[in-house]
Write a structure and sequence with these properties.
The complex is a heterodimer of chains A (203) and B (132).
Chain A: E1 6-8, H1 15-24, E2 26-29, E3 37-40, H2 42-46, H3 48-64, E4 69-73, H4 76-88, E5 92-95, E6 105-109, H5 118-121, E7 125-129, E8 138-146, H6 150-161, E9 165-174, H7 180-183, E10 188-190, E11 192-194
Parallel strand pairs in A: 4-5, 4-8, 8-9, 9-10
Antiparallel strand pairs in A: 1-11, 2-3, 6-7
Chain B: E1 2-5, H1 8-20, E2 24-27, E3 37-41, H2 50-53, E4 57-61, E5 70-74, E6 77-78, H3 82-93, E7 97-103, E8 105-106, H4 112-115, E9 120-122
Parallel strand pairs in B: 1-2, 1-5, 5-7, 6-8, 7-9
Antiparallel strand pairs in B: 3-4
Classes of the chains: A alpha/beta (203), B alpha/beta (132).
């Protein structure tokens, strides 16, 4: 397997943290479809130096941008979004798949991307608790991996539905072949870029 | 190590793991992981938490938890205890040790603490004695 070619887009974590993060990313070739390079991130979570590096990098960037709430996308996004929200001292607002909340909720329906992500979002809908996000909040949306961008598009729509503002969407990695950055209408920040030729990353 | 139960448990378990400077190990519903995984099947309790665990199985990445680890399992809420029982089994399946299970609240009347054989810590208890 070719060595991964990654670039870390931050000065917000230590050299030790950056190295741990690069080593923690597991490439899974041809997943979920042939020709795609999936990045599996469990080892980022199980290596606290790598995990803390991600949180430090996001916290430094978004403290400077005046974020007042952090949205996490169910369920892998929660692990990153929650500590970042705590580091920033702002609310963590979980966005959920439908039907999970006993309280009144608000939601948006959205379309899946060009390949079938139905295992995660078969109902094409994201929800949050009705009083969860304040109008006028300056929101950071965090997910672990950017694929087609369909989920982030839905999350941005839900943020705007409750009259809050998306400052930026942040992910640890992306799958450049799926053009997520082009598809998502809000600014998107990817912490670790995939520079491989398969990625054909857009600038 | 700190295990978090998908998905509400992740919100609490991840920051606790970072605070303790130990691995955060996510336990997941089946079929989500592209890497080799290990799992256990378990029975749901009478409380019917099927919206989350219809397939009665928890999994983790195969190399996620080291043998001999001293593990804290965190979930947000303790109901029947069926999920925690499954989580404890998965920890022991990879030869790690459950130190304690911790939840923020529990649901009175479902006897979760009796069902879970490992020590259980609930952060916030109701005062009126309904669930003692």
């Amino acid at each position: 397997m070719a060595a991964p070619q990654f670039q870390i887009n931050t000065d917000g974590c230590s050299e030790e943290g950056k190295q741990a993060l690069l080593e923690a990313i597991t490439i899974v070739e041809d997943f979920p479809k042939p020709g795609l390079r999936f990045k599996e991130l469990t080892n980022v979570l199980t290596n606290y130096i790598a995990f803390q590096a991600v949180v430090d990098a996001f916290a430094k960037r978004y403290r400077a941008m005046g974020v007042t709430a952090v949205v996490g996308i169910e369920s892998r996004g929660y692990a990153y979004a929650s500590p970042v929200a705590l580091a920033l001292g702002v609310p963590f607002v979980p966005f959920r798949k439908p039907g999970k909340m006993p309280c009144k909720s608000v939601g948006v329906d959205f379309n899946l991307g060009g390949w079938n992500k139905s295992a995660s979002f078969g109902k094409d809908r994201l929800e949050c608790r009705e009083d969860g996000l304040k109008p006028g909040a300056k929101v950071l949306i965090i997910d672990d991996l950017l694929g087609t961008g369909a989920t982030l598009i839905g999350a941005c729509a839900l943020v705007e539905h409750v009259k809050a503002e998306v400052v930026e969407c942040a992910c640890v990695v992306d799958m450049p072949a799926l053009n997520g950055r082009t598809n998502v209408p809000k600014p998107t920040f990817i912490l670790v870029d995939d520079l491989s030729t398969e990625g054909a990353a857009s600038s | 190590a700190v295990v978090g139960i998908e998905c509400r448990g992740y919100c609490f378990a991840a920051p606790v793991a970072l605070g303790l400077k130990v691995p955060f190990v996510p336990f997941r519903k089946p079929g989500k992981l592209p890497c080799k995984s290990v799992g256990v099947d378990f029975n749901l309790g009478a409380g019917g938490k099927s919206a989350c665990f219809g397939k009665d199985r928890l999994e983790m990445r195969e190399d996620g938890l080291q043998a001999g680890s001293r593990v804290l399992i965190i979930d947000d809420m303790l109901g029947t205890g069926a999920t925690l029982v499954g989580a404890c089994e998965l920890v022991e399946k990879v030869n790690a040790e459950v130190v304690e299970c911790a939840c923020i609240v529990d649901l009175s009347g479902l006897n979760g603490r009796e069902r879970v054989t490992k020590p259980v810590f609930v952060l916030i208890e109701e005062e009126d004695g309904n669930n003692i």
